[in-house]
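Morning run. Coffee first, then this:
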Amino acid sequence: MDHHQHHEQQQQRMVEMRMGMAMGEAYVGGGEVVAREAAAQALGAVVQLHFDKTLEKKRAADAQKQELWRLFLAFFLFLAILLSAVAQSPPSRLQCRHLWAPAGLLSLAHLAFYAAVAHHLRCLNGFRYQRRCHKLTLALAADRLRMLKSGGDVVAAADVEVPYQEPPESYLAKFKRSWAIHFAFLITTFAFSVAAAVAILCF
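And here it is:
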C-alpha cells in the first residue's frame, strides 16, 4: 500500500506543478490572487484527473475481488475432493495411522491459500485506500470549483490549491478487520478439515 500511495502522491504533485504553471501567467498582485478563468481550468483538470483515478481504482478493486472469489472456489473444491477421497478410500489402504498424509496436504493447501489470498487482499486494500484518497481529493477540488462560480474575476491563490487528501487513521481499521476475518476463516476451515479427516479415518 505504501508503494502505491507514494506513486499516487507523486502524480498529485505533478498535477499541482501543472496547475501552478497554468496559473502562473494569471497571478495578480504579487501572486496572492489568480484569475478566475485560469483557476477554473486548473481545478477542472484536477477534478477530471481524480475522477478518472477513482474509476480506475474501482475497476482494479473489482478485479481483485473476482480473483479472490476464484481462489475461494478453487480452495473449497480442493477441500471437497480431498475429503471425498479420504471418505471413499477403503479401510485397508487408508487408516488412522495414515492421518499425517491428508493432514499434511490440508496444511500445505491452507498455507498456499493464505499466501495467495494475503497477496490479493493486500492489493485490494491498497486500491480501496487509493480510491478513498482520490474521492476525498475530488470532493475538495469540486467544492472549490463550485465556490469559484460565486466569486469575482479573481480569487485567492490559496483557495485554488488542492492538496492530496488522505483518510483518517480510523479508516485503516476496516482493513485490519478484513485481515482478522481472513485469519479466523483460515483457522476455522483448517480445524474443520482436520477434524473431518480424523472423524473419517479414526472413528
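The first helix runs from residue 2 to 24. Good start to the day.
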